[in-house]
């Protein structure tokens, strides 16, 4: 380390500094086919540029990592373990704009609300995941987890991926429990919220990968707007709608008279409600004039649902 550094970093501090530098480099340059371009030399230069600390191989090898390959694997584990999902936050913000204006006074109006939540959430999720460097890096690590030569390192990456995904799934389970209650829905038997989130996130992630290959999200126009006006739907949004109507039914105990957030135009600061298609499933009733909720997507949709 340089003399300019007032005190030596501990082993843990040095490890964290180098992992963060490695992660930043991969976020900027991408992972490509592997972490081979993530050399100690490149990371040391980044740390010195940002902190003024000069590092050498002797500062790290045998002290923090056995070798460069072990460091590269640790960066992948760090990325795989990421529990942050800014794209999920963007999707939730887009949905809040819809929930502030929905009419939940009847079963039919709640069905329209569900449809609009899926439409807006699908667009937001598609955009957010497509533009998320965190997501693209995470999915690259996921693909690479089966191609790491060391069984021990492969196991570490896969374990970290499972923990990171588990945290994201928990976030969506808790968020959607509130949303489902707010919309006046209940789970159909024998489904669970965990199963719905697993299906939803898998479908969203698959659509995001396909969008990355095609370079665009396929759009379908449907007459679901007010007075039968045409509205644009992504395939992700249409799939989410189908999943919602498969997993959820209207809650017969939902009563807007006792739920302030169930009133038309009430702001959903909490969440307590329910909806679905006619019993027996399907999307019956997809007719003109079925969507009264907000169409103001510009500037509010930035990505991915994950809904």
Instruction: Average the pLDDT over all residues and give the rounded result.
Output: 76
**Which sequence of SSEs, written as H and E, runs from N to C?**
HHHHHHHHEHEEHE
Helix content: 40-55%
The biggest beta sheet is recorded as: 2 strands, antiparallel
CATH fold title of the largest domain: Tetracycline Repressor, domain 2
Total of helices: 10
Name the descriptors.
307 residues, mainly alpha, Tetracycline Repressor, domain 2, 2 domains, two-stranded antiparallel sheet, two-stranded antiparallel ribbon, 10 helices, 4 strands, 5% strand, disordered N terminus, disordered C terminus
Task: Describe, in plain words, how this protein is organized in 3D.
- The chain has 307 residues and is mainly alpha-helical.
- The protein folds into two domains: 11-80; 86-262, Tetracycline Repressor, domain 2.
- Helix content is 54%, strand content 5%.
- The chain has helices at 11-29, 40-51, 57-60, 68-80, 86-99, 107-131, 133-144, 151-182, 193-214, 235-247; strands spanning 185-187, 219-222, 231-234, 248-250.
- The chain has a two-stranded antiparallel ribbon with strand order 1-4. The chain has a two-stranded antiparallel ribbon with strand order 2-3.
- A hairpin with an 8-residue loop joins strand 2 and strand 3 (231-234).
- The longest helix is centred in the middle third of the chain and has 32 residues, at 151-182.
Can you give me a brief rundown of this structure?
Helix content is 54%, strand content 5%.
């Amino acid at each position: 380390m340089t003399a300019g550094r007032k005190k030596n970093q501990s082993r843990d501090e040095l490890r964290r500094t180098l992992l963060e530098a490695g992660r930043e480099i991969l976020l900027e340059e991408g992972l490509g086919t592997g972490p081979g371009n993530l050399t100690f030399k490149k990371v040391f230069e980044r740390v010195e540029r940002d902190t003024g600390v000069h590092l050498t191989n002797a500062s790290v090898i045998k002290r923090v990592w056995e070798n460069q390959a072990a460091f590269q694997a640790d960066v992948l584990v760090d990325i795989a373990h990421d529990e942050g999902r800014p794209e999920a936050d963007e999707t939730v913000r887009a949905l809040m704009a819809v929930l502030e204006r929905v009419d939940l006074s009847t079963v039919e109006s709640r069905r329209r609300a569900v449809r609009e939540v899926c439409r807006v959430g699908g667009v937001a999720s598609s955009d957010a995941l497509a533009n998320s460097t965190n997501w693209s890096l995470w999915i690259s690590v996921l693909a690479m987890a089966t191609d790491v030569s060391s069984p021990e390192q492969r196991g570490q990456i896969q374990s970290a991926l499972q923990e990171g995904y588990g945290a994201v799934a928990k976030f969506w389970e808790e968020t959607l429990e509130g949303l489902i209650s707010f919309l006046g829905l209940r789970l159909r038997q024998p489904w669970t919220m965990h199963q719905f989130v697993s299906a939803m996130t898998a479908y969203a992630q698959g659509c995001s990968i396909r969008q990355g290959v095609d370079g665009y999200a396929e759009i379908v126009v449907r007459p679901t707007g007010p007075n039968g006006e045409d509205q644009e739907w992504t395939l992700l949004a249409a799939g989410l709608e189908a999943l919602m109507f498969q997993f959820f039914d209207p809650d017969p105990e939902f009563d807007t008279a006792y739920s302030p957030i169930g009133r038309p135009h009430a702001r959903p600061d909490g969440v307590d409600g329910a909806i679905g298609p006619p019993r027996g499933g399907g999307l019956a009733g997809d007719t003109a004039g079925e969507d009264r909720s907000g169409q103001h997507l510009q500037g509010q949709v930035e990505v991915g649902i994950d809904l």
